[in-house]
Specification:
By secondary structure, the chain is of the alpha/beta class. Helix content is 43%, strand content 17%. The chain has a single domain (9-124), classed as Rossmann fold (3-Layer(aba) Sandwich), CATH 3.40.50.2300. It has helices spanning 16-29, 40-49, 66-75, 93-102, 114-124, and strands at residues 9-12, 34-37, 54-58, 84-88, 106-109. The protein has a five-stranded parallel sheet with strand order 2-1-3-4-5, sandwiched between helices. The longest helix has 14 residues, at 16-29. The protein is globular, with a radius of gyration of 13 Å.
Length: 127
């Protein structure tokens, strides 16, 4: 696996259960340094405070959606290169297209398991 498992990962979701699930899956894969944020603005604040190797964000959040967060991250010169994976419950084609245009690195549809998550992360890092 060509992914640096020591890099910090930020999980963004307004649903605590989902954060817990993602944390557990990331730990299964081997990540240790996992932070979370409950919405886009909290995520941005954390990202400006600490350099993350990967952001995994839910699409549907209030008040700032994962899509809006992605656009903010890509517009910020200090953060724009951060690998970003979007998690969504619907594989709506227009969402996928919008996220790709906005610069998402990969896309996961719920529900998913550790293997799927690992594959998506590996794909982002060219593994």
């Amino acid at each position: 696996m060509s992914v640096d498992l020591s890099m910090p990962v930020l999980v963004v979701d307004d649903y605590n259960t989902m954060i817990r699930i993602l944390r557990n899956l990331l730990k299964q894969i081997g990540f240790q340094d996992i932070d979370d944020a409950e919405d886009g603005s909290a995520a941005l604040a954390r990202m400006r405070d600490k350099r993350y190797g990967l952001v995994i964000s839910d699409w549907n959040m209030e008040p700032m959606t994962g899509y809006e967060l992605l656009k903010e991250v890509r517009a910020d010169p200090g953060l724009s290169k951060t690998p970003f994976i979007m998690v969504t419950a619907e594989s709506k084609t227009e969402n996928v297209i919008a996220a790709k245009k906005a610069g998402v690195n990969n896309y996961i549809v719920k529900p998913f398991n550790a293997q799927t998550l690992q594959n998506k992360i590996q794909a982002v890092f060219g593994g």
